[in-house]
Amino acid sequence: MSNDLYTYLKDHGEDPILDTSGFTNSYVYDSYKNLAYEHLKSANEPEALVRSHDHEFEFVYINNQEINAFAFIYEKTDVIGLNIGTVHQLETYFANALNTGIFEWVIEKKQREILLYLLMSMAVEFIILHELGHLYHGHLEFDSCSRPFRKMIDRNLNYEEHLESRTLEMDADAYATSRSFGKFLSFDLNQNPPIIRSANDLLRFWIFATNSFFYLFEEEAADFQNIHQENYYPRALRQAVNIDISTIVVKQNKPEFAECYEEIFREMFPLCEKVYKEVGTHNPSLNRFEEILSLADRRRIEYMEEVNLYYREVLYNKLLKHARNKLYKKL
Ligand SMILES: [Zn+2]
Fold first, then answer.
1. How close is the Cα of 169 to the center of ligand 1, in Å?
2. What is residue 253's predicted lDDT score, i.e. its pLDDT?
3. pLDDT band of 40, cuts 50, 70, 90
4. What range defines the domain where residue 86 resides?
5. Is residue 328 part of a domain?
6. Ligand 1 center to residue 139 CA distance, Å?
7. Ligand 1: centre distance to CA 103 (Å)
8. Binning pLDDT at 50, 70 and 90, where does residue 220 land?
9. From ligand 1's centre to the CA of 178, what distance in Å?
């Protein structure tokens, strides 16, 4: 990392970690970094690019124990920052979840360890792709975007900025879902580790990993003392986007899978919630919002409609001038 970029991050209150080689399990940190570069390479393939660019890329770990990540452009360098707390919290949560025996065919210690790292890498990959979505869908370059960092949590925004922000968040989630889920659908099952009995298990793990992340993240993102529904992007909406996009990806890539996929969703959602209630940190005020967070709630539908309208009528055309990968017609 250049000295200038390092100073810029420091000046903005971030504490970049230059070297993770002394960390316990440093190979895990290396593997996530490699994931970021792998996906960057795919995003830059000629068939994926709709606009050429000359930006460099930097992936950096941030010394911060909160779950969070961010993307920004420094001069001509695209930067993704990931708080190391994200890795720690996911590791603790998934280890505790696996100890409850949720996946009953994964019993031996060695197998649980393999699955722990698979779940962690699925969740981290989703987060990295979400940030890459901000960069490659032009979220940081259009005219009304004045904030230097696009953070997953940002509490100091007015209503208009919130609407824009949550629309962009949804677009970034759509980017992440289509790419991470698409990747696991094309996974070569001949090389499967013993924890994967069939492709269905891969779906189960992916749904569990991404949705558990939504639970953990929401705990930190939502300010339950002063909640305004429009001020954050609740878990139920992220789940809804996740369902919609991944269903489209399944239908396009593996239509023979579509039916059992829906069944697996119905099986996994209650399981994610049950496990969260068992091993999550139990934010006591979370229950008060179960109604708002329910997938069938009227307010959720209105919220989605507002975002979709804003995307179609306002943002899509603005983003078109800057997006490097193809935009979605609708969210
Ligand atoms: Zn975001």
1. 5
2. 82
3. very high
4. 3-320
5. no
6. 9
7. 30
8. low
9. 15
